[in-house]
Design a protein that fits this description.
Layout: H1 3-6, H2 14-29, H3 41-50, H4 62-72
Length: about 80
């Protein structure tokens, strides 16, 4: 869920682009960008709200990284 949904704020179609960014990260990195080390939904929600995405050092595609970061930082 996009941060706006987690926070119960109004949202628009940009949350779908945020989801595309999450999927791209997962497809390219092999793990989820938020809460990958926990199954606790509240910790996952907190990670989503904070929006801090870290890429592994082995991820070298700068253009893909920039695109994913752009998608994950879109605000309605």
């Amino acid at each position: 869920m996009a941060p706006e949904i987690v926070l119960g704020k109004e949202y628009n179609e940009l949350v779908d682009l945020w989801s595309v960014g999450v999927m791209m990260y997962e497809f390219m990195v092999g793990e989820l960008p938020f809460g990958g080390n926990t199954e606790n939904p509240f910790e996952i929600y907190e990670s989503i709200i904070q929006g801090d995405v870290e890429f592994p050092r082995s991820f070298k595609d700068r253009r893909a990284k920039k695109l994913i970061e752009t998608l994950l930082n879109m605000n309605p």
